[in-house]
DNA sequence: TCAGAAAAGATTGCATACGATTTCCACCAG
DNA sequence: CTGGTGGAAATCGTATGCAATCTTTTCTGA
């Protein structure tokens, strides 16, 4: 898969930062798996695709590199990240630490508008699961992550929200690489249960459910190292 | 305080990324309060000071902006962040959520080398407390943060480690802005106790002590809003 | 035929240039 | 004296050019 095969919507009104707009679109593409791990993102190509100079493209890639979605090597360029099993474990360890707390914080702040937003979100998630095909599957992974991001936004801590954005994005990459089967239907169920607990104001239960939910997601991964370290490194691209 | 009044050690062997080296030095200056919140960091000045082009200076400032230590405004430039009381609360809420977990993880991984490193660290911290004067005070705040960073590195999760780097740096800013008195001697004591628990392998106790420790740090802050919101916003720079 | 060296091509790192935007300040009308 | 106005200076956003580095291809000698 090459970045040149991608199509991106034109950048909207240049009022906002163009580099940021490019970062958002690239991030979506990575999280949606339209860009496979390891894909080279050359400054020139990105610039041409979005019709900006290398300067701006470079800034966008630098941002993605901070978020851990892109790995940059000096004098070699930027590549879609290819997280190792160890990195994958750390991503989920971080989520286990943070998300139960976010659930507790959110439970104390849910408004009826928030509940409505969650219901809309979960409905959409359900639709993608019902559908079949690779496109629906991508949308499903994305929607599943959006549930967690919505929760983080309700929790009302912008710092934790940003951390979660990074963790969810990296999780998508990890699931793409190491995912085994249909976490989805099971996961959707768990999302529903978490929402019920939140709606009932049962913070403890929401927190515990969240912890189990993360465990389930991680349990579906196959994080065994596939070959000896030497070969592994040699093939790592 | 102007950035031009600062002196910075020359950047070392250009093997590493120069922008990164500049970021590190600026971060130290901000955390040490040699650069006051609100100070303008113009690309040109930074570039001149470090003898690089604006391109590189800009990249360094962009990194700091991601970490929340610098706020950038379009067409206006970069300024040392000036966290609001609300931001301050969120920084500490995040730490309360993350650090007890880090303490638990670290407790299970402490080696004797780690213990030695902690002891060295705490000795140094003690020395700065014994000394008096503004320079020692700065070093003391820095050393206090380093304790938490050391703990994060022992915990062995590089993602959480990076989150902690950001949180500790932002905490230093917050303490500089809203700190009241001598958290230090008290804080040092608590660090010692935490280390004792870690050494004894008592993860639960280390975690609980950490939580209290963070509470104490935050309790020493004066986060009351000083004036009406209208004036406050007008004066916010 | 194949390993190794040399050259060609591509890509990044960085500096610089130029237009656009904002800030500052002198000036003037009310 | 206050408040608005115009232009100059400063600063930012972005494109582009050149040197350094890496990659690939080609050539040579065994």
UniProtKB/TrEMBL annotation, chains A, B:
SUPFAM superfamilies the record matches: GntR ligand-binding domain-like, Winged helix' DNA-binding domain
Taxonomic path: Bacteria, Pseudomonadati, Pseudomonadota, Alphaproteobacteria, Hyphomicrobiales
Keyword Transcription (UniProt): yes
Alphabetized InterPro entries for the sequence: GntR_C, TF_FadR/GntR_C, Tscrpt_reg_HTH_GntR, WH-like_DNA-bd_sf, WH_DNA-bd_sf
Name of the protein in question: GntR family transcriptional regulator
Keyword tRNA processing (UniProt): no
Any one Pfam family match given in the protein's UniProt record, by short name: FCD
Listed GO MF terms: DNA binding; DNA-binding transcription factor activity
Key words of the record: DNA-binding, Transcription, Transcription regulation
Domain HTH gntR-type stretches: 16-83
């Amino acid at each position: 898969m090459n970045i040149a095969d991608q199509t991106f919507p034109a950048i909207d009104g240049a009022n906002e930062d163009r580099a940021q707009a490019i970062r958002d679109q690239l991030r979506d593409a990575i999280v949606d798996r339209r860009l496979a791990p390891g894909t080279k993102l050359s400054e020139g190509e990105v610039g041409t695709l979005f019709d900006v100079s290398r300067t701006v493209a470079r800034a966008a890639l630098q941002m993605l590199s901070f978020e851990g979605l892109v790995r940059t090597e000096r004098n070699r360029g930027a590549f879609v990240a290819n997280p190792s099993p160890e990195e994958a474990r750390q991503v989920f360890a971080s989520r286990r630490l943070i998300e139960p707390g976010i659930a507790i914080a959110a439970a104390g702040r849910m408004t009826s508008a928030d509940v409505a937003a969650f219901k809309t979100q979960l409905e959409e998630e359900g639709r993608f699961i019902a559908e079949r095909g690779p496109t629906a599957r991508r949308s499903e992974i994305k929607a599943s992550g959006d549930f967690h991001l919505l929760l983080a936004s309700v929790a009302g801590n912008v710092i934790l929200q940003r951390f979660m954005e990074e963790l969810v994005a990296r999780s998508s990459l990890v699931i793409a690489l190491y995912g085994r089967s249909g976490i989805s239907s099971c996961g959707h169920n768990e999302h529903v249960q978490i929402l019920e607990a939140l709606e009932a104001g049962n913070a403890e239960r929401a927190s515990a459910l969240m912890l189990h939910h993360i465990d389930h997601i991680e349990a579906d991964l196959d994080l065994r190292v596939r070959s000896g370290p030497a070969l592994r490194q040699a093939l790592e691209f």
